[in-house]
Structure formats: C-alpha cells, structure tokens
Amino acid sequence: MAGLTREVARWLLSLNLPHFNKKLQCYVANGVLVAEILHCYYPNKVQLEHYVDGNSVHTRVSNWDLIKKVFINDKLIFKLCASLNLSLNSNLIDAAIHGKFGSINALLTELYETFTRKKVSKEGAAQDFTDYSYQIRLPFYARPTAARTIKNNIKNSELIEKPDMLNREKVVRKEFYKVKKNISPRF
C-alpha cells in the first residue's frame, strides 16, 4: 500500500477484497485484483473463476486480455469509461503487467476516479514509469552507468513477452539515448 493515496487505500479497504492486503503489486500485475474490483461493481459481467492467480508472463497477459474484453465488449462499462475518460491505455497496462515503478498506483488511482467519480490530487504522478526523476536529482558522479540504467528500466518479463531481438535492441537503444541525453551535464 506504499505510495497509494489515503482515499484510494480507504476505497480498496471498503470493497473487502480478498487479495488486497497480500502482495498488492503481484495481484495487480496479474490482473486478479483489478478483476475483483470490477466484480464488486459488475458481478454479472466479471466472473472471477476465469482469472488465474499466477505470476508467469503468459498468465498476466491472458488475465489482462480478459479485462480488456470486459471493457470493450460490455456497452455499459464502455460508456461509463468513455464518459469519465478512463485512460487505461496499453502503456499503463503494460507497465502494470511488468511491475514498473509507479504503474500500480497510477492504475488503482484511475480505477478509483472512474468508479467513485472523485478526483485525487496527483502530485508528481509520472506516466513514463522509469527512474528518470530520481536520476536527475543525483549529482553527476553518482549517476549509474548505461547498463545499470537499462537494467533498472527494462524488466525481464518485457523481454520474455517480446522475444524479438530487433525490438529488444531498439528498446535498449531508445532507453540509453533518452537517459544519456537527459542526464548528461551541459558545459
């Protein structure tokens, strides 16, 4: 629950979710907690027995595909999300699947704002899900090498899910040059 705002934590506690107090990041990453939240609001539309509680990349992706189908196929939920501008975009979902920094809090905050129709003050909520904001505050001599930066920002599950070597190389280069460009000192 670290990092969640008080309103979001109280909302999740009020739903009496069975997986809320245990391994929050794991249960959001595999989609089980999100399915339970949807089941609280739409018990006839979301059947919890279809969601597998597992930690493999395949399980995570298949659970999130089921959640996406609920959002797309059900007209009532689709209209609610469209009217409230629910931004569960693929970038946010991918970041949650791979457990990137800040993605779990952003996802739960989006769901809170959608279902309760209340706004949460977003102080410094970053949507890039990297450690850039931390790196920029460090003095130049304490900043990590390119290899360490890539290790911190690219998760193993991303590489397992997308085994294409060219794609890996592009992602690594993009992260390296982005970090190098933004962190290098200006003389």
From TrEMBL:
One of its GO terms (molecular function) is microtubule binding. This is CH-like domain-containing protein. Residues 9-113 form the CH-like domain. It comes from Paragonimus westermani. GO terms for cellular component: axoneme. It comes from the Eukaryota. Pfam families: CH_2. GO terms for biological process: regulation of cytoskeleton organization.
